[in-house]
């Protein structure tokens, strides 16, 4: 992320870690399932409601159902480095109001 002009705040492995980072978060990449269970959807919805741009990266996209309100979308893992860079750019472009071009494996979810 630093190469794209952003600073990474940290890795939130569970709900409490995410709460600790949430206040200053602008873009969040989340898995649906964290160390403490399927809490990624709860965290994602809360961050989106607070104004963050939220994307899910998960091996289990079915856990997201029809989507999580306010979030941008999902890309299935495994994800390659260049895809990750593209997804981060999508989030930044979306956040700035620009049109976004998504990689083939990126799915925009209903929100």
Automatic annotation (TrEMBL):
Superkingdom of origin organism: Bacteria
Name by which UniProt lists this protein: Response regulator
Source species: Rhizobium lemnae
Lineage per the UniProt record: Bacteria, Pseudomonadati, Pseudomonadota, Alphaproteobacteria, Hyphomicrobiales
């Amino acid at each position: 992320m630093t190469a794209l002009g952003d600073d990474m705040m940290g890795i939130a492995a569970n709900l409490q870690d995410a709460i600790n980072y949430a206040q200053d978060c602008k873009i969040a990449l989340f898995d649906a399932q964290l160390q403490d269970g399927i809490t990624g959807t709860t965290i994602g919805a809360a961050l989106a409601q607070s104004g963050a741009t939220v994307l899910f990266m998960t091996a289990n996209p079915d856990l997201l159902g029809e989507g999580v309100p306010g979030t941008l979308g999902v890309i299935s893992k495994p994800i390659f480095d260049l895809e990750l860079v593209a997804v981060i750019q999508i989030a930044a472009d979306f956040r700035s109001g620009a049109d976004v071009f998504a990689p083939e494996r990126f799915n925009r979810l209903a929100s």
